Structure prediction request, 97 residues.
Amino acid sequence: MDFHVLSRRFHPRAVPARRERESKRGNTAAARLGISSSTVRSWASAYAAFLSPKAAGKDSGSPRDYSEADALVLATIANMRDKGFGHEQIIDALEVD
Prediction:
């Protein structure tokens, strides 16, 4: 399966160019996606293989930071979940990218 989906909630042009390199805290990522920060943390754990180490929480004792690439992965997950895709289908789609 080849899924190249982005959430309607996150569009790359909506992000000013100067922010492209800035990382996002969990609350900011959640707010941009319209989901709770606990959902972001849950997804970051469930889909850690597709996120940066900082976003996946692999740096113990450090707060999670989400890059723009992480935000796109989370937006893809949000979009696919909204459309009714399950965990395994989302993993399959993320592996294609």
Notes: Helices lie at 26-33, 37-46, 53-56, 68-82, 87-96.
